[in-house]
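For reproducibility, we list the full input for the adenosine-5'-triphosphate complex.
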Amino acid sequence: MTEIARKPTLAQYELTPQPRKSASPPSMNGAPSISGRVFQAIAANEPFTAEVHAGLANEEHVLEIERFDLWYGASRALHSITMPVPKGKVTALIGPSGCGKSTLLRSVNRMNDLIDSVRIEGEMRLSGDSIYAPGQDVIELRKRIGMVFQKPNPFPMSIFENVVYSLRIDGERDKRVLAEVCEASLRGASLWDEVKDRLNDSALRLSGGQQQRLCIARAIAAEPEVLLLDEPCSALDPIATARIEDLIDELKGSYSILMVTHNMQQASRTSDFTAFMYLGRLVEYGPTGDIFLQPHLKETEDYISGRFG
Ligand SMILES: Nc1ncnc2c1ncn2[C@@H]1O[C@H](COP(=O)(O)OP(=O)(O)OP(=O)(O)O)[C@@H](O)[C@H]1O
Ligand SMILES: [Mg+2]
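The corresponding predicted structure, in tokenized form, follows.
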């Protein structure tokens, strides 16, 4: 991979938010701010409208999440999430452990269908198509929405077969096509130079960081419209993490990425938009620079600066 110059990052400001302006900032819903008592309102189950920054309205949205609720049995994990996800951008989901980030991510490609106790209400649309419409082909849907998990999960087969897996499922047999897609995907995932001479080796022999890039290559081989990444670097060392972050930067534009991270510097470095969740609610959502440096809500500021959670 050619080393790209690392961008100056918000982390250089040590994530110190600027003092919030006293005047009410612009928000999409125009609701009065209840900054300072948001967490109490949520804990008391009072009605609460997320602070969605006006900047989001200017974006084209690949994914529209509307009043989405999810229950695991009697326990409610998501509360009326309304969240448009911009096309060709990186959106980070942040929030304390257990606030529903993975649940929301898994709902987008219907991984939660696999859990019997799950019940949902509300709507999600991918490029206008209802994700939960009766008759929606879930296999097709998952080709349009790729997912990479916290722990790399290469299949126990060769590097080559891992990458072309989705094409094999589709019945593609043309060796030239398979080889081309394999190379393009591995190049896209910045792994080609490291593995081009051992494509037939078992993927399980790759290092953790290489396995994670292989999983990204496997996901992008299917040419998804959306790439879901659930803490993709949490099992990696700082060098492998930096490579994945560079990769996310390079993939931006071609793909719309929705990424969960616990790492505030990573969210500030890699994402264009950041959504802050708490106890199953979307709390504040806006351009990453605004969320980190001029959040509208005190709660967001406290979380980002480590004074909470
Ligand atoms: N399969 C499941 N069955 C029942 N409850 C679940 C299940 N998965 C998650 N939950 C619950 O749903 C809530 C949200 O969990 P989720 O895994 O989405 O949180 P998270 O924000 O991803 O947390 P973390 O940062 O620790 O990964 C938690 O209270 C969790 O216990
Ligand atoms: Mg999670």
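The first helix runs from residue 38 to 43. The first strand starts at residue 51 and ends at 52. Both points were considered when choosing residues for closer inspection.
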